[in-house]
Amino acid sequence: MLTAVFRGHETFVIFGVLISLVVGFATYKIARSRGGANIAAPIWAAGVAAVILLTSWSTGGTAGPSTCVINRDLAEPFLGEQGLLNLAMFVPLGFVGVIATGRFLLPVCSMVLLSFGIETAQGLFPALGRACDTSDLEMNGIGVVVGALLGAALLQLWRKSRRTSSVRSKTNWVVGGSYVLIGVIALMWIKPNAMDRTQDISTASSQQTQVADRVLRQAFDGHYHLRAVDFAHGPDGTGTVTALFAGGSIEITWPGAQQATASLDPLNGQGYPVPGRPQHASTSSEARRIAISYAQVHAPWALTDSVVTTSPVGQHAERGWIVSWRRHREDVLMPMRLDIQIERTGRLSAFIMRKIADPPLPPTHVTRQNAILAARSHSPGGAQAHLQGATLLAKQSKGRWIVQWLVALETPDQDVTAYVDAYSDKVLSVSRVLKVATGHS
């Protein structure tokens, strides 16, 4: 709700400030005419006017269905700047409201009603370009309560109290009736859209930051230091922790940190110098020796019973070589993985480390040929599709390890990848990638 949408619209900002000042001044004059001298009331009125103007400003939306996001993750708004700004915006309203009225529940209920009305209006009128989101209502409400508690504590300190029971009774009826009215409007005309979360990326938690710091220090012997850490949410509490540091980044699977993927920028001299190794690699053998030296210290778990291969990066190894470790058990590719890229400067510029112990696997019954036939049945080219490869691999599915055939096929128009259960020959998933036309006109 507090997205920076006013850049280039300074006229509206000035107009909004003037309206808020006018509302505050009018409230002050009315209070004076009735014998009141509480300056908090006009400040409260001006603040309410400013919030209404701020949240009703159109960002250029278009007509569409009236919807409102119901965010099931109540903790998510606390992890982002947007949620904290929404909370902070309503703290002054709760504080000044208590000072102005001498009560607690009345300003709290009134300001929560204000937020409820704003979110309903944003959901009801998509043309405003504002999203109705229960996270905003949650944080606004918490902000009001925090401000009201501060105001109540200050009033108690000043030993002040006011009693206006007749007005209170009337006001309570108005506030309660407004809740009912807005609630009925929301239920009748706004479609709820329940979501597990509203943000795919948020600031990492302290625990995730600690894990990222530990992995980074272990991978590069404390050579780099964290600058920022984010978390990209996946299904069922999983996701990816991304840590930025000077010259690169590292991504870590969450939870468990089983895989780490690092990428550095060697073009700016940010590649990692492997200790004790020469600062050049003119051949694949030299690059391999440097990679092995690094792996012996940082990934010894990948060296036992593994097959090592070296592949050039670029047609003439312009970007060095990738040294890879893979392990097979009874012709099944294990989930363990280690890839290290060594530049011609002898520096490490990237790696993928997947530290997973060889799991126990179920028996397999599907032959390579039957797996290919099953994959072809789901390929647009059928029997004419060109076979690029078929690999038997271990893969985790729904918390258990299974064995699948990974079959890669090629047609004139598409690249097709199929996963076939090695126990039942059932095709579990198929992905198709269209080829980009390169013909000349």
UniProtKB/TrEMBL annotation:
Domain of life (superkingdom): Bacteria
UniProt keyword list: Membrane, Transmembrane, Transmembrane helix
Membrane-crossing residue ranges in chain numbering: 12-31, 43-63, 83-101, 108-129, 141-159, 171-190
UniProt-listed InterPro entries: VanZ-like
Domain VanZ-like residues, every copy: 71-151
Protein name according to UniProt: VanZ family protein
Organism: Streptantibioticus silvisoli
